[in-house]
Amino acid sequence: MSDFIPVNEPLLDGNEKKYLAECIETGWISSEGPFVKRFEQEFAARMGRKHGIAVCNGTAALDAAVDALDIGPGDEVILPAFTIISCINQIVRSGAIPVLVDSDPITWNMDVNQIESRITPRTRAIMVVHIFGLPVDMDPVLELVDRYGLKLIEDAAEMIGQTCRGSPCGSFGDLSTFSFYPNKHVTTGEGGMVLTDDDQLAETCRGLRNLCFQPHKRFVHERLGWNLRMTNLQAALGVAQLERLDESVAKKRAIGARYTELLKDVPGVQLPLAKTDYAVNIYWVFGVVLNEEVPFDAEEAMRRLTKAGVGTRPFFWPMHEQPVLQRMGLFENERHPGAERMARRGFYLPSGVGLSDGQITKSAEACKAIFSGVTDTSIQ
Ligand SMILES: Cc1ncc(COP(=O)(O)O)c(C=O)c1O
What we know:
Elements: H1 16-26, H2 34-46, E1 51-55, H3 58-68, E2 76-80, H4 86-93, E3 97-101, E4 123-129, H5 138-148, E5 151-155, E6 163-164, E7 167-168, E8 175-179, E9 192-196, H6 199-209, H7 232-243, H8 245-263, E10 269-270, E11 286-290, H9 298-307, E12 313-314, H10 323-326, H11 337-345, E13 346-349, H12 357-371
Parallel strand pairs: 2-3, 2-4, 4-5, 5-8
Antiparallel strand pairs: 1-9, 6-7, 8-9, 10-11, 11-13, 12-13
Helix pairs in contact: 1-7, 2-7, 3-4, 3-6, 8-12
The structure holds pyridoxal-5'-phosphate (PLP).
């Protein structure tokens, strides 16, 4: 099992150790330490934004973004059906209504052509989620946001270092959010960030992150917040990781190109789209979707790959098929066939920035072996 290829391995061979040692030597380990501000400023600058508010994870960043916009009962928020549960948590908890858009079967992102039909007089915001390395085409979304006077939340967790028509992902939302979990291009172990150009929204997010303590009457509260603070230790990692972002993105693109080369002629599997007219894939993960001619589903494919020593992960499960949300009476009889198909037929291969060429070849060879006999309907 020792040469099992993990689905993700981070690369921590820059200044991570040095900056962490600095935290320990100076005693600055809490959220008050200097790396937090430095990480916020350097990350925001890299994405072309005025404010960065570092938080403890990407889910918390989304919670703060939804709450900062005062989204609540009576409001509707449009978001993709195919995404992580983090996107919908605070929308539902606040009493607002999540409104889902199905996936485009080629880009795997929310189908921007379906958004307008989901807008009603109650729509307050669109939450865009860029999926797996290729961003959502922002031009049509920005046009709708402008025309209907909506707020835009941009979840760019999977898109650190990506651009859309030349502008950084994370530069588009009234509030844009990131995650720094170890499978992201910049990792802090656990961590997240909210970016904005709006001074008032930035102040609100800073308050929400820190229990809404008030500057003058610390323990008197006008609003309920959370403790979402990032520590100096995490931010130290983030500063070091950000220094290597261009290299990490180049590495991910090389991994994607190599997998594509090795798998392009394998029957029955759909590979990630390499580019569109607005972006070139950065392959946050290298996903595959099984075509209808493959007589088994993603779960079975992953089981076989695990047996061959290759780590995998399933795709997201759609929001309208989440038992917890269905029990709340949401999405009754809703169908989103694109998202449903991806959930059942999609999974991803080892994609970490630390992956070696030998590991890519081994993973691709294992894939080929599994799909070479797709006409054989026997499932062992
Ligand atoms: C699109 C997206 N949003 C949000 C998150 C949640 O981030 P975290 O795991 O840091 O809470 C993830 C996590 O992978 C994600 O992929």
